[in-house]
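Marked as duplicate of an earlier ticket. Keeping the data here for the record.
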Amino acid sequence: MSPPRVCINCRQSQDYIALVDVNAMYVSCERVFDPSLHHRPVVVLSNNDGCVVARSAEAKALGIPMGYPWLKLEATAAQHNLVARSSNYELYGEMSSRVMAILARFSAWIEVYSIDEAFLGLRGTLDELHAVGQQIKDTVLKLTGLPVCVGIAKTKTLAKLANEAAKKVDALGGSVCLGPRTRNDPRTRAAPPASDRGLGDRPPRDQTPQRDGHFYGGRLSRRRPSTYP
């Protein structure tokens, strides 16, 4: 049975953009077909097993950088319980197609951004959007075994910001709806203003989720939609 779409008849409904991103795509694909890799540091190597092109969270915690030569890691791999897998791009492409087909159930507008990312057009209240974000996350995991994070906001840039927060702040549960602040919304009055950082590796300072799961981006969310793509 197809998942229900976001309500579009509510008077308070608005247009939003969601960014859905598979967590550590290559590693997650390998884990689907080899469950023994779960909770272990895993790296996926480039052609001819030259260097690291993907890392699990556990591998990142070991301080392994992207592009690091496998030759320099191999000697100490057993010491750290580190597992390496040769890249299998045919597999990753097939899994990506399955994910995109699932995402198309949730929106008539979908823009495939990369092998592991896609933008979706959504419409609804913040509560409805937060619910559909969780549903996207749960449906993709159930049907493919791949974990994803969902960021929802008014623009692509803000959706990327929300997605980064969903990845880095465990309390957010992997799905973040970045709503516009309004003076009449009591949930946002106590939220401190955010700096314009947070679009790269460092999360924004204003990354505290509200009890209902909404995420308010302070200064960024107060910008006009035309400010960011």
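See parent ticket for discussion. The radius of gyration is 19 Å.
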